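Appendix C reproduces, verbatim, an entry submitted by the partner laboratory led by Prof. M.T., so that reviewers can inspect both the input and the predicted structure.
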Amino acid sequence: MKIEIKSEDEELIRKRLQSGAFRTVDEVIHDALTSQDAEEEWIKENRSAIDAKISRGLAQLDSGEGVSGDLARARLQKRKSTWLGKHRRS
């Protein structure tokens, strides 16, 4: 099979090869396709849960239960800091 790769995709492939994680272009492409398949499968398996959470969030916003973007970011930053504190290597 012969394919044409855009220059920005070539750069991404070069970056992966230079990282040392892959030895060949074939490995990079195979990993990308495998990852894409896994992501699509995860979405299929979790579609109803994702839709339910979106619906619940929209209903909460409609009923005035939403929070400001600043508050949401602050909460996420706190959770991230807590998580990093627990998972940092000594």
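The chain has three helices and no strands. Additional entries are available on request from the coordinating office.
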